[in-house]
Design goal:
By secondary structure, the chain is an all-alpha fold. The chain has one domain. The chain contains five helices and no strands. The radius of gyration is 14 Å and the shape is globular. The termini are close together.
């Protein structure tokens, strides 16, 4: 129950912040990431929202974050973004909304 309240209230433990920051930093350093202020801020919000949705398994969280960035915040052409969006949808269907 404590975890639920932390996710709802926006309070993160230091280890959770480390995970969020590590995933964020790794992805925005990719050459394909559109590194402008809007993209960074919007992606940060999406990473936090994804984590709050209960995606706490690190591998799944990282995969979903990467696909989300590739679909919405990349310099890729439209076809590559569509492929990423399709893979993101498939990954979300495979993953339960909360990983306990």
């Amino acid at each position: 129950m404590q975890r639920y309240h932390q996710l709802m209230e926006g309070v993160f433990r230091p280890d959770e912040l480390e995970v969020l920051q590590a995933v964020f930093n790794e992805i925005i350093e990719q050459i394909w990431f559109d590194l402008n202020e809007f993209s960074r801020e919007a992606f940060a919000g999406q990473v936090i929202q994804l984590y709050r949705s209960g995606s706490t398994d690190f591998a799944k969280f990282k995969e979903l974050s990467l696909l989300m960035a590739r679909a919405h915040f990349s310099r890729d052409d439209a076809e590559e973004k569509q492929k990423a969006m399709k893979r993101l949808g498939e990954a979300r269907r495979r993953s339960p909304s909360a990983d306990d």
